[in-house]
Amino acid sequence: MIKKAFTLAEVLIVIALIGTVAALTVPNLSDSYKDENTVVKLRKFQNELKTSYQQAILKYGDSFENQAGSQKIASLYEFLETSESASFPVLNLNRSWYTRELKDASIISMYQTITDNVVDIYIATNGKNSSTVGKDIFRFGLNVATGEIIPKGRGNDRGTNNALSLGGDNINGTNWAVSIGNLDYLKCASSLNWETKTTCD
After folding, report:
1. Quick check: pTM over 0.85?
2. How far apart are CA 32 and CA 63, in angstroms?
3. Could you tell me the sign of the dihedral formed by the alpha carbons of 175, 177, 178, 182, in that order?
4. Which regions of the chain are under pLDDT 50?
């Protein structure tokens, strides 16, 4: 009885097909993993910031809200695990920003204007290698009176295409990333909406 075997040509064809499928799917899996990791970092940072605010209130009481911007930011940093200083990549932050590196290598910059009750906060989730607004550079606000952490793009822009705009330093996609849990606005923003289509698939 003659046993049938695969020819060398058939084996090579199968290997080529497997290689082609792998080449097409592995980059997508890698991008998906990076996006998920970014969302995890953003949500973790939001929680850490909330905790640092609560600890600052416990320590300084009502005087926290009345501190000068720089002192208030120093009080927040007191309860965040950070290095002493760092340089924020890419963005030209034209004011006296206070920048530090977090334990997970993300870099954050904080600033509060004298008349504003919100501390503006930028986070570079890929550390010194961050380069793209809405992909690895995001923006939050901290209301120092209420402790509310406000991902950029929430407010009046939510539910509109402008909520996903990434122009200038607005980084409105931050709220989408934190709330919805993906960065699909980088691929198909015009087809997304908050209620019925939250992914490109």
Report:
1. no
2. 44
3. positive
4. 156-159, 170
